[in-house]
Here is the input.
Amino acid sequence: MKIYFPQWQGSGNGTSIAKGAETILNYLKDDSIATVALSPIPSGKQGYSSHHINNYNAITEQLGRFKDLLSEKSPNQIQIIGGDCGLEIVPISYLNKKYSSLGVIWFDAHADINTPIDSPSGNFHGMPLRTLLGEGEIGMESLLYSHIKNDQIHYLGLRDIDKKEQQRIEEGDIYATTDIQTKHLVNILLHKGITHLYLHFDFDCLNPSEFNKTYYQVPAGLTIAQSVKCIKGLKDNFSIVGSSVLESTAATQKDLLPILPIIDALMK
Here is the structure.
């Protein structure tokens, strides 16, 4: 099942993320893609913070709508065009309940594993993994189908980490690397008994010299060729039951050109 969910409220004020999602949607030209509507609750500069999370009410309302869609359709596979990283709590928790041996591959410059209290920004797109671990805002528990564990998380391209996040990663012995060694990663996943994967792809994992139409630009990072090779390597060895393309701000089809190999690998 393919889903278009241009959630941007998890970034605070990043409406450009919604435009980036729309650009990818227009590229794919697939009439079967379902849409999760955004909440009408004021957000961004007109939004409010609750439970230390910006735009909390809008986020929870539309994530609830997302959960209802998955519950109704019961898909075996999910591909998401988004949107900010906060939306991941619904599909990952859904697939984790469905598949007992799910691994989460987090292509991202950021760890996204803050608690609301520890978050410097209060933006929910920096909190989804902590929420999925069952250590986030208690009011969001009803949006989850299940909790994941430390050893299910595997970071690729990670290089912009808050102090509390680094501490949580080290305490949980969570796989994290700025580079990609596909064969090594595949062996680790096989050793853990993982057979199914969710591939989260935030485009800020890439080196801005190759693609800079992202909400954040973090120096260094993965190359597009590295990323595509890794995705293909993972697809050759595991069942990919979920994937996402997130936080692009590309406003035109021309802007998308550098990352089309990644979009095609994850969405087609």
User: Anything to note?
Assistant: The chain has one domain: 2-267.
